Protein: fumarylacetoacetase
Amino acid sequence: MTRVEIPEDSLFGLANLSYGVFSAPGASPRAGVRVADSVVDLTVVDPVFATSSLNPFMAQGHARWVEVRERILDLVAGEIPDAAVHPVDSVTMHMPFEVADYVDFYASEHHASNLGRLFRPDSEPLMPNWKHLPVGYHGRAGTVVPSGTGIVRPTGQRKGEDVPTFGESRRLDIEAEVGFVVGTPSPLGSAVGVDDFDERVFGVVLVNDWSARDIQAWEYVPLGPFLGKSFATSISPWVVPLLALEAARVATPPQDPEPLPYLREKNPWGLDLSMEIAWNGQVVSRPPYREMYWSPAQMLAHMTVNGASSRTGDLFASGTVSGPDKDQRGAFIELTWGGKEPVAVNGEPRTFLEDGDEVTISATAPGPSGTRIGFGEVTGRILPAR
Amino acid sequence: MTRVEIPEDSLFGLANLSYGVFSAPGASPRAGVRVADSVVDLTVVDPVFATSSLNPFMAQGHARWVEVRERILDLVAGEIPDAAVHPVDSVTMHMPFEVADYVDFYASEHHASNLGRLFRPDSEPLMPNWKHLPVGYHGRAGTVVPSGTGIVRPTGQRKGEDVPTFGESRRLDIEAEVGFVVGTPSPLGSAVGVDDFDERVFGVVLVNDWSARDIQAWEYVPLGPFLGKSFATSISPWVVPLLALEAARVATPPQDPEPLPYLREKNPWGLDLSMEIAWNGQVVSRPPYREMYWSPAQMLAHMTVNGASSRTGDLFASGTVSGPDKDQRGAFIELTWGGKEPVAVNGEPRTFLEDGDEVTISATAPGPSGTRIGFGEVTGRILPAR
Structure:
């Protein structure tokens, strides 16, 4: 039997207990919990974890999430069978869940305003609908990939003068986002109430919504982004349970006009996540999630108000997290103002992504009693176009 | 043993052999083939059909589709075990496949021009990108439902004067479309060539992309349609194999400007489907699929040109099929010109859908030797808002 030592300042202490899917050398993928620098095999807790996806467990619902979290806490605070403990560096992390539908919102007022100015310089930056509803759209679930997956530079039709040009994207960008994973499904023809968020949503991941701006700019009117986004969306391997984020809850910024009743939260689900974006190892931005105008509870309520069902494994992301300051912007098109104001990365002036570049997004949030909860990171390196 | 009698004018003769998933009373769902007015249980042909989804068979690839089609032809042309034959009226039809990603295109020039005039009366009806690429977007895979599912009228934020109004949609509409189902997956980072369409796509279904125009009009700028579409998309229960549609192939209309090389087909995949839309039993429109500007092979090539993977069960739909004439329009917003020109349905002037209305879309296509191939129908009735 083994005891996992947890340093006092660990981001993966007993208040966190994030879930992932891992494989040890020679073993099949299964679910595990992150404790300090170890992964603990959860098949010793419950047979539902003996699969390559968290979906079966997430589908069991909120009461089970609470109960199993207690059992995991008991396990990892005590003696654990040796064979169930692996150094995190010795295992391979996989997609933690099967993505059902993927929706991407646009919930940062700073990001939406910046993008409006860049994409539509002759119009009001925010559309008339923006403060009435969380604007969102469906993305490609099949190209959500785990952190570490190489990102092949996409090819396609790019915005030109009168006619498009064709070739590899020259304006390849990131979007630093936070994603929410549905556990308990909701049936067709019913809406999820804005205060039922924590009954439905199992946990949180970090998202990099890679974006080819030249492809997007040409294609997106009138039906929205498509190939400029669909080549890859990366997520972090550890799903932080919503149950670990009580101390991170904050009010959203003031919402004016007052939202319609179905979007009014009794206890807001703003979240005080501190995010960092590292470009080839250098931190270039620190987006504050607490600045997001719409909360994830409002996103889920809106997404289902028309009676759309939701499924276990649905992933909905916040949209780019950008704060009011320049060094808080979550996309390089904003950070470099359309490529016109390069930023220094390891001494070089940089705008969009070059082949070989690596981007890593990480985050932490307040935990109980002054501790911090880690989200790990989502990382990816740009590979040359094929 | 039984022999299935096939009337000479049957739309489900030996040249068709469409696949579906059915359950006989008291039996579990499994795959079957439609022959005249019977369903033949395909578990007598191959164990891959002993599941509630065509995905495992579709994933086996083109050579297997050809081989199994020959074996099915041998079976149904001869004597069949009694227990494997069911009258089609005695069985329940289910979703024929599990939808991976759902993409909706916008490939009819007539429809796109009409909608442009209706939604953006002050601009050019066609966007500058429209003749350069098949415009499309991702829809909600989780709300694709089988024909016959009741459609609950959606509720949401509707376009108002300055601020939105909230309530049930008053401009509920249909979109008559044709959907294409991917069988053989393609990996991340590679593109499907425009001439590889028939290696990849297994078959064809009819699609009704129900649309709430008042919700859509308020939400869709700048990220595209979302809740105005995501409450339900209905598909027909029979997947017509692409192998049955050789005689239906036609050239697409002339494409000017010439498409970029990745969109140039050697042998075009235009399709001569004749569609019918019945509103409460009365045929109100006959959209001609052969008028579609972009072919489904061009759609798949475009959808993957950026390196996006495709999966078994991906469904991509054509967008509304509308011809040049008024009685060939595939959506009621076009047919009634935004509700200003009602059509007579059983003697009543009608614009958008009322509770209790039923819409049925059906289609046929040329088969070999003067026969016709049936697609069956996709039908749905409007239920009151909850």
